[in-house]
Amino acid sequence: MVRKYILPCAGYDRPGGEVSRVVAERLVNDRDDVVIGSMGALFKERPGEMRNYRTSDLFCLDGCGTNCASELVRARGRDDVTSFSIHEIADSVEDLEGKVKHLVDVVAEELNRRTPKTSFTVTEEPSRTIEYLEEKFDKFMLRVAKGLKYSDNDFWVRVEGEHVRIGASDFLQQMLSDVYYVELVEPGTHVDMFDDAGGMESTKILVEIIVPVSGTIVESNTSLEDNPEFINQSPYDEGWLYLIKPDDVDELDLLRGGVDYMTYALAKAKREIGTKVE
Amino acid sequence: MDMTSSKSEPSATFMGVDREKIPWWPTIDLEKCDGCNGEYDCLKFCPHRVYKPLENPSRIAVEKRYNCVVFCQACRKMCPKDAISFPSKGDILKLIKVERAK
Q1: Would you say residue B87 lies in a domain?
Q2: What residues of A are in contact with residue B7 (Cβ under 8 Å)?
Q3: In chain A, how many domains are there?
Q4: A216 pLDDT exceeds 80?
Q5: Which of the residues A194, A201, A254 would you substitute to probe the B interface, choosing the one with the greatest number of B C-beta atoms within 10 Å?
Q6: Is residue A141 part of a domain?
Q7: pTM higher than 0.90 for the full model?
Q8: Structural domain for A18, as ranges
Q9: Could you tell me if B12 lies within 8 Å of chain A, comparing CB atoms?
Q10: A153/A269 same-domain check
């Protein structure tokens, strides 16, 4: 079940703000799929708030014409918000309780209308629909594509029929920073798990491509010769490195799933950044 | 004489195994290493602070062996004297599998 994040107007001392607060409280009491957002926490991007924010459908209760709630949501990167204007919906109703009841009905109907999604966080990229786990760390936003396997050397594996595609994780590309040269080995090359096969050179360092699976390389991403920046811009899609015919897909059991890798990458990021400021 | 130390960054694991249980780090052939005459190519190259320079005579030493990225041996390839070696990848993978099964 996808949660619904309801962001009430923060002008609690004003009529619209008061109504929106009461409506949000009533909805959260009536339902188990609703969480009340906080304008202050969202403004400050508190981690817990941002997690709820990113993983929920968004509903703003705007108390006045300034539409602060909807504006803040857009400023925090989401434009898929459903906004309710307290005035437009409830001005015709006289008393506070009447307004609240009417609004609760209108908002609840909209909440119910939403078809449940199965995803956690969904972000779409142009050429392929990839769902991501996202966590903020320091100034970084780490993105881990769901449904892939990850090596502790920070490479991903995607099973595609009888082949697997591999590439560098978002964490690795961020550690590298701007890649300007990618050296790939020729198709036909056989590699064992954790062999190195080519490398990526950035303005900071050169790293080997440590292949996370044994098999025969059937295709190299030659577009990286002219566009090494794909590694940074689109690590899980256009920035792929090799298509491989694996020797034994059971080998992938040695790798991590997305959630597990996120935990690992965050711990590693913490160590790497700790190292630099030491 | 073992010139490597056991210091490492805190609580690192690799493939679920305590990093300090995985004997993967470079070994320097001191007969071949000349510290690139004070240039220390491997030291400059490795971003993980594995190496420490020695002077008089100019040589390289492994200081933080557990900082070394398991299965990375990029420094070996760029050593002009071919003085760096690593354990067998297959042996290390076997060991990791054994540790994981525990």
Answers
A1: yes
A2: none
A3: 2
A4: yes
A5: A194
A6: no
A7: no
A8: 4-113
A9: yes
A10: yes
**A37 and A87 housed in the same domain:** yes
Contact A6, A61 (CB under 8 A): yes
Does A104 share its domain with A174? no
Q: What is the 3-state secondary structure (H, E, C) of A107-151?
A: HHHHHHHCCCCCCCCECCCCCCCCEEEEEEECCEEEEEECCCEEC
Q: According to the model, what pLDDT value does residue A128 have?
A: 61
Phi-psi region of A161 (alpha: psi -120 to 50; beta: other; left: phi over 0): left
Q: Which residues of chain B have pLDDT under 50?
A: 1-10
* Mutate which: A183, A210, A248, A276, vs B, most B CBs within 10 A: A210
Instruction: Please report where in the chains the tokens 């994040």 appear, as a residue.
Output: A5
A154: CATH: 2.40.50.100
The answer as to whether B93 is a domain residue is yes
Compute the Cα dihedral for A176, A237, A195, B93 and give only its sign.
positive
**B8: number of CA atoms within 13 Å, CB side?**
18
What pLDDT, in 10s, does the model give residues A172-187?
999 998 999 999 999 9
Chain A environment of B15 (Cβ under 8 Å): 152, 254
Are A19 and A90 within 8 A, CB to CB? Answer: yes
